[in-house]
Design a protein that fits this description.
single chain, 125 residues, mainly alpha, 5 helices, globular
Length: 125
């Protein structure tokens, strides 16, 4: 992944300096196989590595955290995931972090994610 691709997919809401720091710190060249497996999971009638049993009644509480400006996982995908997961008998919640992209848990604004996530965890401990 080039730096420009990383910025678009992961660091689109950051300064160039912070994007470069994250790119140099976290970018690891790797196989694209897991991404393709996830992208085609809905078309595989036999299941696979990325198959999810959203009906599992033993699933714990689930918090979906969505950056409103995420180019890698657009808000529509997060909402579609919530719609599916909310059919599970377990707790399912979604929060949107305004103006944030895909790097929301590793960039300088991480506390805007950590605080509500911690609150969610504390409610179900």
């Amino acid at each position: 992944m080039t730096f420009e691709q990383f910025v678009y997919g992961w660091a689109n809401n950051l300064t160039e300096a912070e994007a470069k720091e994250l790119y140099e710190t976290y970018h690891v060249p790797a196989s694209g196989v897991p991404l393709f497996q996830a992208a085609t999971a809905n078309f595989n009638p036999f299941g696979g590595e990325t198959t999810l049993d959203w009906k599992n009644p033993n699933r714990g509480p689930l918090l979906i955290i969505a950056g409103t400006d995420d180019n890698a996982v657009p808000l529509a995908i997060s909402h579609a995931t919530y719609k599916i997961q909310s059919k599970n008998p377990g707790v399912t919640e979604i929060i949107e972090i305004p103006g944030r992209g895909h790097s929301l848990v590793i960039d300088s604004g991480w506390q805007a994610v950590a605080d509500p996530a911690l609150g969610f965890i504390q409610r179900f401990l």
